[in-house]
Prior knowledge:
The protein is α/β, with parallel strands linked by helices. It has 2 domains: 38 residues; 205 residues, Vaccinia Virus protein VP39 (Rossmann fold, 3-Layer(aba) Sandwich). 34% of the residues lie in helices and 15% in strands. It is built from 8 helices and 8 strands; from the N terminus they run ααβααβαβαββαβαββ. It has an 8-stranded mixed β-sheet, with helices on both faces. A hairpin with a 5-residue loop joins strand 7 and strand 8. Helix 4 packs parallel to helix 5 and helix 7 packs across helix 8. It is elongated, with a radius of gyration of 29 Å. 34% of the residues are buried. S-adenosylmethionine (SAM) binds next to helix 5, strand 3 and helix 6. The site of S-adenosylmethionine has 22 residues, from helix 5, strand 3 and helix 6.
Amino acid sequence: xxxxxxxxxxxxxKRIARTAALSxxxxxxxxxxxxxxxxxxxxxxxxxxxxxxxxxxxxxxxELAHLDKNLLLEGVNECGFGHVTEFxxxxxxxxxxxxxxxxxxEIGTFQGRTTLNxxxxxxxxxxxxxxxxxxxxxxxxxxxIEKTEEMYVKKAESGERFKGHPLxxxxxxxxxxxxxxxxxxxxxxxxLVFIDGSHAYEYVLSDTENALRLVxxxxxxxxxxxxxxxxxxxxLNDYYQSGNPVFRNLxxxxxxxxxxxxxx
Length: 264
Ligand SMILES: C[S@@+](CC[C@H](N)C(=O)[O-])C[C@H]1O[C@@H](n2cnc3c(N)ncnc32)[C@H](O)[C@@H]1O
């Protein structure tokens, strides 16, 4: 090895040895090492990404139910504004088929499409109570409902999907404002409560408090529109983030806008 090469190797070796031995104690060297490390470290995640607005942990229908391909379904594809989606009506029907609830309370009847499909998949002796706001009471509600949901209240008929149906005997239709309705005859009786009335934040809170009084221990509450309406999302996020143990198991059913809670 010639002298020049030897001197070069020695220089490099000394530099490495000095860096390893002394840098941790020398502020200037530490700074230089930090800069070198930063050159090779992966870029920090961009803080420009919007924050995920959905705070509920996810579950899915495969975790919640053994899928039954022989569900009884009616009017799945006859839907539009104001209805749960085609997939959601199947998810709700699967849950009803799995849970076999004998007492169901629905807040927000609309045409009664979900009511009918719950009747089709619940036990033969199940009873469903479905509550709707009559158009005549739209201007007297306890709290303000959203302007954009008034059209679902102002309809010629409520519950037409189950009227005259052989399973209509399983369904009791009641009318009133969900915030002032007297639920006391049904307190702690319900195996399943489906909340799909007004989507205004204050209404979702009020309907949830009433649902908690309606449901029996071990019963289930479903909310529609967690991902579609700001009021529902905010109310459920607030409940989940409140630390209240009642809502610890509140979950969003992936692929749907439905949230689910088993009340312990
Ligand atoms: C989106 S629709 C319900 C859809 C229905 N659950 C389904 O799955 O097909 C909302 C319903 O809630 C009712 N509603 C709105 N505000 C209400 C209130 N304050 N009290 C009771 N029902 C209300 C409306 O009249 C309407 O029928």
